[in-house]
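*** Protein under study ***
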Amino acid sequence: MSTEPSAGERLATALRRSPIYVDPSLASAMPKAERTRLLAKLRKAPAPIYVLLVPLVKGGTWTDPDQLAGVVHGRLGRDGIFITLDDDPDDLAAREWGGDHQARDAAWAAGLDDALRDATLATKLAHTVDLIIAGTGTQEYKRISAEIDRRYGSRRPAPARSPAPAARKEGGADLALPLTAAGVAVAGGLAGLLLWRRRRVTAVERAGNGLLLPRAVFATASRASEDQLREQASHEVITFGELLDDVNVTGERANALMTRALDAYQAAGKVLDSATGVPDLAGVLVLVDQGRDALASARAVSGGGKEIPVSPLCFFNPLHGDAVVDLDWRPVGTRNRLRITSCRACAKAARARKTPETLMDGGVPYYEAAGVWAETGYGHLRDDLIERVQRGDRKKS
């Protein structure tokens, strides 16, 4: 039997020596002088802070921030604040055990702050720790989120193909306002930035909502065997059913959303009972995800709030988790182009004209197989996935 310590144990051992651990591949991001300054800040913190700068790699040892923080916390046996890289390696994530010092909000605020958009990782770390020490992480996160909402609504550029219908006159001269290439670039850049920031806010808001399907589920599912995935899918259906029992809503729209959540629960159970492989089990998780979105929106609307923005899963493989990149993609062998969204890894492969890590069904990409998953793109291409499953469209002969 091997006596080699696990990866989590090795990191815990390193944190017992110093509260800052930086993987050798990231050493340049935290030079010695920056580590010394950060250590001085950590001594002022209201709770122990552990910094774990370790790459998160899909299919690797560490795949998401919650997994990394959770495992190392368990091996370390000490409560405190654990700061790691986020799914986007330019941002940070924080998780805390044994208190509430607004650490998660502080890390999110640093990732959303325009003033830190081009800052080094060391600078973002220092800012995050400063917010934790000051106890203003949640306040700063809410302030930045509100500012992004205002800009997203009021400064969204007009479409490039819709210039002003008439030229404006001043001093007797016509002042036409052509949309130049530079103007298009600026408008596109602003639109892209605002959209990315808005999606980032949405992801943060979803992470704090207990009725929504945790994204860590997909990090586990993507590495699971078929039997493990079946067990996980069964667990998620049961959990979803328990959540439905605990939520009561009032109001026409809230009741309609609650009905959709119940329909999704029934559809997920129907697929689970007859699932014949990974594509079906992935479909169970997609249906649970859609249903829990509807459930969370029902409760929010019933309480006088807004519906929860839907966060689609990766088109190529929903087990990859959130879709964060828009793509204009043409399947091989066809002339039809699809507007889809995918995870970063699949988008990078598609843009490089490589084959994304696609969910396979019967030896072919699922979207080339017959049935409801292909026809709807697991809900990407049509919004009637739940209804189609309920009426028995899952398989076609």
